[in-house]
Structure formats: structure tokens, C-alpha cells
Amino acid sequence: MQPKEPNQVRIAALVRDLLIELGEDPDREGLLKTPERVARSLTYLTHGYRTTPQEVLNGAVFESTANNMVIVRDIEIYSMCEHHMLPFYGRCHVGYIANGHVIGLSKIARIVDCFARRLQIQERLTEEIAAAIQEITGAEGVGVVMSCAHLCMMMRGVEKQNAVTVTSSLLGSFRDTAVRAEFMSLVR
Ligand code: ZN
Predict the structure, then answer these.
(1) Would the pTM count as exceeding 0.90?
(2) Which of 50, 56, 151, 174 lies 20 to 30 Å from 132 when distance is taken between CA atoms?
(3) Active-site residue, selected from the candidate residues 24, 84, 127, 182
């Protein structure tokens, strides 16, 4: 069962309280519609909770005898860290070697979004994408590499502006040295 849509009125009321607690006046002109805007924005930014890989795939799995590596590079990531609810963003590369079934290339990006649009840590996001591609296609191997900048590190905490976090998840044949090397050279 899919989780229900967030209650916009309730979120807006919470944001209004938050503004007051932070020392703001929610009745000043610039903030009048902010609670409703934030409610809509947060609902969109977390829409991954209300969809599944199977749903975004919508049956787009095709039989194929191809046994080559397929890579979709430079998929944009916009997610939010679960520790601070601040954005992290960057790019991800997804590769797999089919074992009888392939999926539409655009669906790979949509599966990425399905997990990115939730509160996440980058490590888990990387693993969830790889596991979903593996489960859906039955691929002989899957590789996901992601590099992201985390605003919670950049604008607070250690305040490191240029630190990029790189994570990878390699499944099946992508753990073999030669396959991993081919994948890494193609996404570099
Ligand atoms: Zn964080």
C-alpha cells in the first residue's frame, strides 16, 4: 500500500510554528505564503516515498540477448540528508550487464529519483539504486557510482565547501576486477 499524501494544512501549520520559534514573524508580508509554499516544496522533494521502482518502470522491461555493459552517465541527483534535512546533490552513473532482460534507459533515471526523493544518506541511496536495478532486470552485474556535495557539510558543521563524497555499490559480476575496471574507466 502506498503511503498517503502528506496533509498540506498540517505541514503549513508546523512550518508557521517553526518560523515563530526561529524568531520570525509569519505575518509579515514576505512570509505570508511561506508555510504553504514550504509544504508543497517538501511534499515534492519527498515524492519518492509515494512511489516504487516497479511503478515508475511501468512494465518497461524487455527481453534481450545483449550481454554488453550498458551505462547511463551523469544522472543528476537532488536529495536531502536524513540527519539535517539539508540538500545533497551531484551526479550518479549506473551500469549493468543484462542477463536476458533490459529496461528503458530513461527508466534508470526515474528509478534513481524514486530513491533520491526521500530523506537519505548517500551510502544507502547508492545501494538502494543498485539493488533495485538488480532485482528488476536480474542482471549479471550492476554498478552505481555517485559523487555528491552535502550542504550540511558546506554551510554548517565542518564548513568544507569543496568536499565531494563518492560512494559506489557493485553487485554480481561488477565485483570482478576486469568488469569493475571497465566500468570505472567508462564513468570517469
Ligand atoms: Zn547531513
Answers:
(1) yes
(2) 151
(3) 84
